[in-house]
Specification:
single chain; about 325 residues; alpha/beta; 7-stranded mixed sheet; globular
Length: about 325
């Protein structure tokens, strides 16, 4: 992780409203905490070397073979496994969707020696697509994904934010039946448990078998596995109980940001959005909000292709969003 990430709330301990993380901040985790509290004895033994019990549960839920699922320590571990496996399949190049996009695709690819493909013949490349895309909230259509899979040796479709949009996305079954698609999922984001690190890959059994060669023993800890099984069995524990209303509020926040002179917010199909301040820098705005209003936003200037003026915010409750709007207006007045 050479480029860094948002949600650096550990540097701002006074934060009261966190717009920096794309994960909804008000998920009710009380039932999960109670369940884990009854299973703390798990820490006294090694977990499964591979989280096979959770893989079987996920596969059963989505009607796909168990050998089409690989559970990882967050979707990020899956990204690095895929880059490593691609190199060992004698692949030499990678590309990503349009910038800006999630920085770990570049970091993982270059760590294992893949070089970025800048155009021309693409049949031998690994393509990373984030859908919905972080940080823009853009959605790639299923037709675009199908075309991308025809043009590349391997296509990674990172659907970590799939439960924060109403747009139609590739299904688990479609990914499992494809010969060259690796689909990433994040229980971390679906259920708002980023501290537990639980993700998984869905792909054809041959691709999952390839990745399994490189996964580290016990990479997913016992409490994470137990939490994952409980969450998959309790689908009502998702972070956002009413996604439709939440996304309507995201669109309102987007419109109101654009109504502030000196702020431009890009269209989004999810709960987070990329914006640009026309005066000063995003870092200056971030410091002002943190120190004067105890709010944290994401300085997005370290995303490839963006400027010092770009920042990202994630929709919270209406009253909190209104405070953000008011505070930005005060800063620019």
């Amino acid at each position: 992780m050479r480029q860094g990430h948002g949600d650096d709330i550990y540097q701002y301990p006074e934060t009261e409203i966190n717009f920096s993380s794309n994960i909804y901040a008000h998920a009710d985790l009380s039932a999960l905490k109670e369940h884990l509290g009854r299973h703390l004895d798990l820490i006294g033994n090694y977990p499964e070397p591979e989280a096979l019990s959770l893989e079987r549960l996920i596969a059963s839920k989505h009607g796909i073979p168990a050998d089409s699922v690989l559970v990882t320590s967050g979707a990020t571990e899956a990204i690095y496994l895929i880059a490593q496996a691609a190199v060992n399949k004698q692949m030499h190049h990678y590309s990503t969707g349009p910038y800006p996009t999630f920085s770990e695709y570049d970091d993982a690819s270059t760590m294992f020696g893949l070089t970025r493909h800048e155009g021309g013949q693409q049949a031998d490349t690994l393509l990373w697509l984030c859908n919905p895309n972080n940080p823009t909230g853009h959605i790639f259509s299923n037709e675009e994904l199908a075309e991308a899979s025809r043009r590349h040796a391997l296509l990674v479709v990172d659907q970590s934010y799939e439960d924060y949009t109403l747009a139609p996305l590739m299904t688990h079954r479609e990914a499992a039946q494809s010969a060259n698609i690796l689909q990433l999922h994040s229980l971390t984001k679906t259920y708002a448990v980023p501290g537990l690190r639980i993700g998984y890959v869905v792909a054809a059994p041959a691709l999952i078998s390839l990745l399994r060669q490189y996964i580290r023993p016990w990479s997913v800890n016992a409490l994470a596995i137990e939490a994952g099984k409980w969450l998959v069995e309790h689908d009502d524990a998702r972070a956002v109980p009413d996604v439709e209303s939440y996304l309507a509020e995201a669109q309102r926040l987007n419109r109101q940001l654009n109504a502030i002179p000196g702020i431009e917010a890009l269209p989004t199909h999810t709960n987070f959005m990329l914006a640009r301040i026309h005066r000063g820098t995003a870092a200056e705005l971030k410091d002002y909000l943190a120190h004067n209003h105890r709010m944290l936003i994401r300085d997005a200037s370290n995303f490839r292709g963006l400027t010092l003026q770009h920042f990202r915010v994630s929709t919270q409750r209406k009253d909190e969003n209104n405070l953000l709007l008011e505070s930005i207006q005060n800063y620019l007045s």
